[in-house]
Specification:
By secondary structure, the protein is of the alpha/beta class. Helix content is 57%, strand content 13%. It has a six-stranded mixed beta sheet, with helices on both faces. About 8% of the residues have low confidence.
């Protein structure tokens, strides 16, 4: 009888120890979800709220922001509000970057109730969390989520993006991309001009030959 009580006491002690270890163990949170052009809409449909980071792996600003973004994915308040954190690599997913008008990185967009809100604050844990919790309301009504572009509309979006870069470059506000576009446009215009001159020269020469034949 005594041995039975001892056995039960040992089992109870082990159970209490196990429960204390479980309760005291750190909770493992999932890292931000990685999305692509092909999976973005699926993630949007399955997420109540989505904070999406447009980044580039070699971008130093993105690298400095990474620890804060990882910390946000572990935040209980955001998880309690059903906020999913995700990242998308811009150089590998041009379709999404064109679709959402991404012109630099890191860029944060918050998807909430069918609207998008573009974050423009500091790239740090506290201001980003404040933005997601309630701060996005200070950004007005937001924008409608742009539909997935068709083959034709992609050309329109690309044209708008190129025009925006050229306009900023003309205003002296563009980065290397804008200035590279200006150089490229200059080269193309120069080549086009050379082609026009070449064609005019050929046609003029032919007309001269015809006149000579008629004169003979």
């Amino acid at each position: 009888m005594a041995s039975g009580n001892v056995a039960r006491l040992i089992c109870a002690s082990l159970a209490c120890l196990l429960l204390s270890l479980i309760n005291g163990a750190p909770v493992a949170y999932a890292a931000p979800v990685t999305v692509t052009d092909s999976t973005l809409d699926e993630v949007l449909e399955s997420s109540t709220n989505l904070l999406l980071l447009f980044k580039a792996n070699k971008c130093p600003h993105c690298q400095r922001m990474a620890p804060d973004y990882e910390k946000l994915s572990e935040d209980d308040d955001l998880k309690g509000n059903d906020v999913t954190l995700a990242t998308i690599d811009v150089p590998s997913n041009r379709g999404s970057s064109i679709r959402f008008g991404i012109r630099g990185f890191p860029t944060l967009i918050y998807f909430h109730n069918g609207r998008i809100y573009r974050y423009s604050g500091k790239r740090q844990f506290t201001p980003i969390k404040s933005f997601v919790m309630k701060g996005y309301e200070n950004y007005g009504d937001g924008e409608e989520v742009p539909p997935k572009p068709t083959f034709l509309s992609q050309f329109v979006l690309i044209g708008k993006a190129v025009w925006a870069e050229l306009y900023d470059a003309a205003q002296g506000k563009a980065g290397m991309v804008g200035y590279a576009m200006i150089v490229l446009m200059g080269i193309l215009v120069g080549l086009l001009g050379m082609l026009v001159v070449f064609l005019i020269t050929i046609l003029t020469g032919r007309y001269d030959d015809v006149d000579k034949v008629k004169g003979d």
